[in-house]
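Methods: example folding runs. The two proteins below were folded one after another, and each record is reproduced exactly as written to the output file, sequence line first and structure-token line second.
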Amino acid sequence: MRGLLIIGVSVVLVVAALFSVDAGLYGTYVLFGIAIASVVILPLVNALKSPGELKKPLMALAAMVVLFVISYALSGSEVSTVQAAKGVTESTSKLVGAGLTMFYLVSGIAVLGLIYSEINKALK
């Protein structure tokens, strides 16, 4: 029943998008809102059903916060005159640097995880 509902809504949105770009954009906003609500609400519902399973996501969230704090501490806040003329402040520069550093850290951890996983599989 849910599948038919999703297919029906998708068909209506596609047909509406064919006739108007605005309808497509509004449809996209609605679907984005549903996705965000699903991401926030469904884990909370599952956590209330079994609080013990909440430990792993909280540990992952804590690890991401620690990585962001490390990235923020490592990033610089220098702003050139060209950047300052474009409205970039020191705090903006530091946040952008922290985001880039965190991206590099998470990418490196992911690559190391892939390598470890492949080596672990090969040795079994």
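Second run, written to the same file directly after the first:
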Amino acid sequence: MMKLALIGDPVEHSASPSLQRGFLEEAGIDGDYLAIRVPSGEGGRTIRRLREDGFTGCNITYPLKEEAFEACEALTDEGRRAQAVNTIFFGHQTLGTITDGIGARTAIEALLDEPVALKRIGVLGYGASARAILAELHDTDAYTFVWGRDADRVSAACNIFEARPWPPENPPEIVVSTLPPEARLPEELVAQLRAADLVMDANYGSRANLGRQLGREVVSGDAMLEAQARASFDFWLAHLDRVSNT
């Protein structure tokens, strides 16, 4: 039986259980996927408990992605570069990766109906999801720009991922917001986002409220979530096969 879980706070709104149970059924695998509310500071202990209880793996959401990174014994290149993980496989080691980047890129390319290479893409925020998206876009030759309130953290993200600080005179045409639903943006940035060709909010469902603040159409993060959830499921299956063949 394939035992999976989502940990974070909040998790009540999450569409991940429905998506992952669908993937299990589609693959003909006997398993289940639980959503477990885990507050900040309890991530490492919970991950160790899931391993002891025989779980195959887990997803990690806010605010535990950095705690999960610290709890891993091995990391993929994606997890190492983002300094955060949203997917763990319990094999010979606790192996972590992050699928936020491929989820965002897949969603943007589906909307554009073309690759993101050479596109000018702005990322709002510099947290775990933002870093994963910047890494993915860097690897796919997009030009990236970072906006955030902390200049030092913007500068750090730009240095790591060869991005540039937000250009006030020539803002990017495509924007991905990784900010929390309660974030309020300065008026100058709101005006620039209203003029962008495409704005995508990484939040989804009732938490995707950026469009109301901007007064324009904003793509919710549903497609991004589905793509990153699929990437997590494929990650678990691939490593299950490797473990069973050793």
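Comment on the second run: The two ends are 19 Å apart (CA to CA).
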